[in-house]
Specification:
By secondary structure, this protein is mainly alpha-helical. Among the domains are: 92 residues, no CATH class; 48 residues, no CATH class. 43% of the residues lie in helices and 9% in strands. It has seven helices and three strands; from the N terminus they run H-H-H-H-H-H-H-E-E-E. It has a three-stranded antiparallel β-sheet, with no helix packed on it. The longest helix is centred in the N-terminal third of the chain and has 24 residues. This is Transcriptional regulator family: Centromere protein B DNA-binding region. Pfam families: HTH_Tnp_Tc5. GO terms for molecular function: DNA binding.
């Protein structure tokens, strides 16, 4: 009985890299180009990618988000295990990878106070909104209102990008003290909105 030929792992690694560099790789053609068995290449490519997808989703579930750079490093580490001198994947590989796996998508992440995050109990919020729905079920939309407020200080500026003829850092003066202005806004569920209501600093102290 003839012995099966030994698979060249370095060629398989290069073939996997070539397949992963494409949005819709033709596994059959790549297997022929690199002289590796089709079934071996097909299995390796899909197993590697599914492992990466599972890893990303698991890390997200434990609140450790994976950035494109981290995902790229993880993929490169997989290829380096089988071929030490493999060329690293390009930055575009991550975006092609996400296009192949629709359950992964880029999203922005903003810093947020951990106390606010801890207070966001999904179960409690769902219960609250279910209760609100029961209370307002028979109330006309024009009688359901919501209001919000925001405060700002007109004399205080913020960092921004400007067009300048020099590379010297520019500064803008801001007032040492500025009063606070509060704005109230009210909107009805049917789309009606009240003009903003501004609250300025009082002129005469109020008595109890």
């Amino acid at each position: 009985m003839p012995k099966s030929s030994k698979i060249d792992e370095s060629r398989v690694a290069e073939a996997c890299k070539a397949a992963n560099s494409l949005k819709k790789p033709n596994i059959s053609r790549i297997a022929r180009d690199f002289g590796v068995p089709y079934q071996t290449l097909y299995r390796r490519v899909h197993e590697q990618e599914l492992a990466l997808v599972g890893w990303v989703l698991f890390m997200e579930s434990v609140n450790i988000p994976i950035t494109p750079a981290i995902l790229q490093d993880a993929a490169n580490a997989i290829f380096l295990r089988t071929k030490k001198d493999a060329q690293p994947l390009s930055k575009m590989w991550v975006y092609r990878f996400m296009k192949r796996h629709k359950n992964l998508k880029p999203t922005s992440q903003k810093p947020k106070d951990d106390k606010r995050i801890s207070a966001e109990d999904a179960g409690a919020l769902e219960q609250w909104y279910n209760s609100l729905a029961r209370v307002t079920r028979n109330v006309p939309l024009r009688l359901v209102y919501n209001f919000d407020k925001i405060s700002f200080q007109p004399g205080r500026g913020k960092a921004q990008t400007i067009i300048s003829g020099t590379e010297r850092r520019s500064n803008i003066a801001e007032a040492e003290y500025s009063e606070t202005i509060t704005v109230l806004k009210c909107i009805a569920a049917d789309g009606w909105s009240m003009a903003p209501f501004y609250i300025f600093k009082g002129q005469v102290p109020q008595e109890d």
